[in-house]
Design brief:
Layout (H helix, E strand, L loop, with lengths): L3 E4 L2 E4 L12 E4 L5 E3 L5 H10 L4 E3 L5 H4 L10 E4 L9 H8 L4 H14 L8 E3 L4 E4 L2 E7 L8 E5 L4 E5 L17 H13 L4 E4 L3 E3 L3 H24 L5 H7 L10 H21 L3 E3 L5 E3 L1
Parallel strand pairs: 4-5, 5-6, 6-7, 11-12
Antiparallel strand pairs: 1-2, 2-3, 3-4, 8-9, 9-10, 10-11, 12-13, 14-15
Helix pairs in contact: 3-4, 5-6, 6-8, 7-8
This protein binds zinc ion.
């Protein structure tokens, strides 16, 4: 396990698998109080961390298990979560119904997060909101509501150092992810703009790590992925892929369904359906009486 310096008293803990899903990068503030930010770097890495450091509290960005799978190892200290996560945080049965659908898919989801991430039920102790300030020694992180990915997703900004922890506004080439019923493309666009307007000097992304160069350009490219996906869906409808199932089968967002195909098909279906909904609202695509989509 390595600790990569970001600014004085703040370190990146690189996640397993280079922080790619189903893991994510965590951060450690070696300040007062010593604080772990997110806990999805992998239970093995977290065990190594606990040998050399003693986090006095944990701040979690949102309910996704790839950000909090390690919380069950840390329940003897305060775990602080977004207020909007409180209704289901750390409870596998409730999260399964929130992140997929009740029924067989929920069972598949539970065995996936248990097997791939070591996620177990866990509790929390405190809640935070948009505008909450975390005073970690000299670092003062302000929490910023950053919905779209999930309803409870937050970001943290430290204005003196210009460090933005953007979590799953992750600036990956894949682009934004909004595969739940509660996710929203419109909210995601607004969140990206809010974070750009902060003009951060350093961004720490949960799946890309530390980013110091071309930050505004990277945000613009990330935003553009949404337009590119929309354009691809319009073209697929024009080419005759006129039902949601046919579009999911073509997989314009994931580029195919291999690992955990039942889950990725469901999530891609949610994402495409959101694009179709806004395309219909804009009048760029119409839905025929037989439920097939066509171009206007
Ligand atoms: Zn997430």
């Amino acid at each position: 396990m390595e600790l990569v310096p970001i600014v004085p008293h703040l370190f990146l803990i690189p996640g397993a698998g280079r922080g790619r899903f189903p893991f994510s990068h965590c951060l450690l503030a070696d300040s007062s109080p010593v604080t772990l930010i997110d806990a999805g770097c992998g239970v093995g890495i977290l065990a190594e961390l606990l040998e050399m450091a003693n986090p006095e509290q944990v701040i979690v960005s949102h309910s996704h298990p790839d950000h909090c799978a390690g919380c069950s190892m840390l329940e003897d200290r305060p775990i602080v979560i977004p207020r909007l996560a409180a209704d289901s945080f750390g409870r596998k049965d409730l999260l399964a119904e929130r992140f997929v659908e009740p029924g067989p898919l929920a069972t598949t989801w539970k065995s996936f997060v248990t097997g791939a991430m070591g996620f177990e039920d866990c509790s929390f102790s405190d809640l935070y909101d948009d505008g909450t300030t975390f005073r970690l020694g000299e670092l003062h992180f302000v929490a910023i509501s950053a919905p779209g990915h999930t309803k409870d997703h937050m970001a943290l900004f430290e204005s003196t150092t210009g460090v933005l922890i953007s979590f799953d506004v992750d600036l990956t080439p894949f682009g934004p992810w909004y595969g739940h019923r509660e996710s929203s493309i419109e909210a995601f666009r607004a969140t990206i703009q809010t974070l750009m307007d902060l003009e951060p000097r350093t961004v720490v992304s949960s799946h890309m790590g530390i980013i110091r160069d071309h930050i505004q350009e990277r945000f613009r490219r990330y935003l553009h992925v949404l337009d590119a996906r929309e354009g691809a869906i319009v073209e697929l409808v024009r080419a005759g892929r006129s039902t949601l199932d046919e579009l999911v089968e073509f997989s314009p967002i994931y580029g195919g369904h291999r690992d955990n195909a039942a889950l990725t098909r469901y999530w891609e279906g949610q994402m495409i359906a959101k694009h179709l909904e806004s395309l219909v609202a804009d009048g760029r695509v119409i839905m025929g009486e037989d439920g097939r989509y066509e171009n206007r």
